[in-house]
Amino acid sequence: MPLTKQQIRKLRALAHHLKPVVMVGQHGLGDAVMREVEIALDAHELIKIKLAGMEKGDRKASAQHIHAATGAEPVQQIGHMLTLYRHNPDNTKIAL
Predict the structure, then answer these.
(1) What Å distances lie between residue 33 and 21, 51, 58, 59, CA to CA?
(2) What homologous superfamily is domain 5-85 in, according to CATH?
(3) Cα–Cα–Cα angle for 56, 37, 91, nearest 5°?
(4) Average of per-residue pLDDT values in the chain
């Protein structure tokens, strides 16, 4: 289910103070990185990912791959920072 503009605005405000919990380095998106993204989404629902060491086109492709693989909704991408949200029905932390 896509997020509404009001929900995105609320999630951006909540994510503003967050630090990145997953960092993608020069080796790109491996299995270990994708596992960490899954774990972080299950634990926090709203996370930031730092896509360091990549060109603009590579960052965009990596972000799309993460969205498709995890089922998370993109909240925002500014430069090297990607913010994602995925509702966890077993451990809800954010009420939209």
Answers:
(1) 11, 11, 16, 15
(2) YhbY-like (3.30.110.60)
(3) 135
(4) 92
